[in-house]
Fold Ribosome biogenesis GTPase A.
Amino acid sequence: MIDNDNVIDIPSLQWYPGHMRKAERLVKENLKLVDVVVELLDARIPMSSANPVLREIVGDKPRVIVLNKADLADEAATRAWVKYFAAGGISAVPVDAVKGRGVKELVQAIAKCAKPKTDKLVQHGAKARAARCMILGIPNVGKSSLINRLSGGAKTKVENRPGVTRAKQWIRLGAQLELLDMPGILWPKFEDRQAALHLAFTGAINDNVYDVASVVLLLLDTLRTKYPVYLKDRYRLEGEVPSGVELLEEIGRKRGCLRAGGRVDDEKAQQIVLTDFRCGRLGCVTLDALPSKDSAEDTR
């Protein structure tokens, strides 16, 4: 388990770029055009991949959460997260955007969430229409994959809407759903160092902006604590799983990452660990612990 007091400092991640402030402004300006906000999270790190200012931006707008990459997450933990969000009055749908699992349920959840608004419009004499949404999330959690899956790979642009600039497009995603697709996506503020590490583990942060060696050792320490059997199975480890550099070197030897003289090539071993984890070869893993029941209302 990671001790947050001893987590390595990642100063280069303490930022909130100006173009992301522009994205935040665009979201605020266009909220009135949609019925539902779809928040895209990584199912392995539902808390770490959430933008901490999103609730403030969205306000009372109805919201549906997508727990994407659910195929890579601990299934039992994902069920617990769905219940956690439900306790806060928010529908959360596990999705594998690459293979399409959960997409049908997501469309139904969005339509249900938008129904009070669309029904009200009809009651006031407007023509019945599809639910309208925008998808928000931090980079590299699968927005493009989700949109492609929702659209079936054939995105149909809808005619211009009043108040929408040329930089934004309406895309019809089947008969039940229209998406307001806008440039820009929200980054988190990296105030929680453990959340920043979880983002680094999953590849949401570019590997070039942090010390990969230190991060890989912390990833192995986390897996050794929470999912040691996955390490043993993947790397054919016997007995008690070692820790730190010793574990990395053993993995390197098992994978043949050797230099002249039989020394382990640490960089190759590090990349193997990162790739294996991110591709799900180390098993279905959830890193974020479920918050206390008392904090469920914070999701509202």
User: Anything to note?
Assistant: The beta strands are 36-42, 63-68, 91-95, 131-137, 156-157, 169-172, 177-181. The domain at 211-279 is CATH 1.10.1580.10 (Conserved Hypothetical Protein Ylqf; Chain: A; domain 2). The two ends are 29 Å apart (CA to CA).
